[in-house]
Every structure is written in C-alpha cells, then in structure tokens.
Design a protein that fits this description.
Length: 271
C-alpha cells in the first residue's frame, strides 16, 4: 500500500479508531483535547470514538480522556488518577453498598477509590465501627458516622494511599493482638472472572482475603470495566463473597458462574 493509500485509509473512521487505540495503548493515559489535536478532529468525534472503544473493551474511558487496558491491569496508578475514573459508576455502586449496612454495624473496608466512594455514601449512617487500611478514609468520613475508627498498620504504599500488612489490632505494646470480627467486609477488587476476585498486588490480595475471612458477610465492589478480567493475585474464589456490586449486569458466562457460586449480584435499576 502506498503512503497516499495508507493516508486515505486512516482518514476513515475505522482506520482512525485503530490508530487512536494504538496511540492510547502506547501512551497509557491521554486527554480528549490531546487526542483531538493529535488526530486533527473535533472533540465530539474523539468522545464518540472513545465511547465506542470503551464498549468494545479496547481501552478504558475516563472523565476527560482514556487509559489503556495495560495501564489499568499492569500496574497500580496514583490514587488521584483513579479518583477521576468511572466516577459515576463508583457512586452508583456506593449507593447500593450502603443499603446493605445497618446503623451500629462493624465494617472492614479496604483501600481503593470505590471503597472511598462507599465511605462518603455512609454519611447518613450512625454509630458504625470501621476498621480499614485506607489512609484517605479518616479525612473523608464525618465524625457523626462512626463510633470507633481503626487503622490497620503495616507498610505504607504512598501510590495507593494504603497500608499493607496483617489484619490485626493491638491495644498496646504489651497487649496481645485482638481477635477481631465484623458484620460486613466491603472489598474493592481489581478484577472479577469465573475463577474469582483478583488484584495486582500480592500483599493487597492477602490482606483482602483476611478481611473477608473475618466477616459475617462480604460485598465485593467492582465497576464493569473490571469484569471478565484476571489480575496477578487471586483474593478468594467467587463463593468467598456474598454480593458482587457493580454498575452493569455481568456477561452471560460470568453471571452463570456467580449464580452457581451463590453470589447475589447487585446493579442499579435499569442496568
């Protein structure tokens, strides 16, 4: 194919979208404005292309731009970047999650921006006991919501604003660690497929699994971009949770696996 022929192909929508997908995959994270300038098309055109490519699971649409699948699945990103991704979906998940929480409950909440959205949505709850490794929660939650708030210790991961370590609490240096239990664990994960729930970091996976083991009930939090994917470290198999809360109905295959595992799937009405 000559250079002129190649240029004509690339001017077609399909050709442009292929180039756009390749560019996002190479760069990792882009804005709509940058893409419009790079491909010399309107912002509305880029938005339509990104929406379609997101539906096709080629890339991940974010507020104001997009990130590559590899960027999402391959490594942790700064929390401020993740806070701008799937914001409406996380808020919808949060509203469903807090409906499962009764006043006076004991909760374990892990790190993650979806967990943070759930924490904010608890604003009308009262008398909760919360234990978490999410360093953002103490600054985000109102003192009217909780009776007691505990932070799990461990190594601080500044990238994700979380601690990673054992799910234990000691009252003093001379007091043995307490055996702790909770009514519900609210666990945000990086991926969900027929084999179970997974995340990209081994230490995080171990900590999530221990939170789940100490809970009467567990709700897994995952927006639909994380469904039918598998990351490095499995947290627990599907049957390890009671609920999967997401923003869109899972695929037929995943829905069947969840049903067989006895997991209740919660999605917003109309989805």
């Amino acid at each position: 194919m000559t250079s002129q022929e190649l240029q004509r192909v690339r001017q077609l929508p399909a050709g442009r979208k292929a180039d756009l997908a390749a560019y996002v995959d190479e760069v990792g994270r882009v804005t709509v404005a940058d893409l419009a300038a790079h491909f010399n098309v309107s912002i509305d055109t880029i938005r339509r292309d990104l929406d379609q490519l997101d539906r096709e699971n080629v890339l991940i649409r974010t507020h104001g731009g997009a990130v590559s699948i590899a960027e999402r699945a391959g490594r942790d990103r700064e929390i401020d970047v993740r806070l701008s991704m799937q914001t409406a979906e996380k808020e919808a998940i949060a509203q469903l999650a807090v409906d499962l929480v009764a006043d006076g409950s004991v909760l374990m909440i892990n790190a993650g921006t979806t967990s943070l959205a759930v924490t904010r949505a608890l604003r009308n709850h009262r008398n909760l006991t919360i234990a978490t490794n999410n360093l953002r929660i103490p600054a985000e939650i109102s003192s009217t919501v909780f009776r007691d708030l505990y932070m799990f210790g461990g190594a601080v991961r500044t990238l994700t604003q979380a601690t990673t370590g054992p799910v234990t609490l000691g009252m003093s240096g001379s007091t043995p660690e307490m055996d702790i239990r909770c009514d519900m664990a609210l666990i945000a994960v990086g991926a969900v497929d027929a084999s179970g729930y997974s995340t990209s970091n081994l230490g995080d996976a171990a900590m999530m699994a221990e939170m789940i083991s100490r809970a009467e009930r567990t709700a897994i939090l995952a927006d639909s971009t994380k469904l039918d994917r598998r990351l490095f470290a499995q947290v627990v198999p599907l049957e390890g949770a009671d609920y999967l809360i997401t923003d869109r109905a899972p695929s037929t295959e995943l829905a069947a696996a969840l049903d067989a595992a006895g997991v209740t799937v919660l999605v917003p009405e109309g989805e």
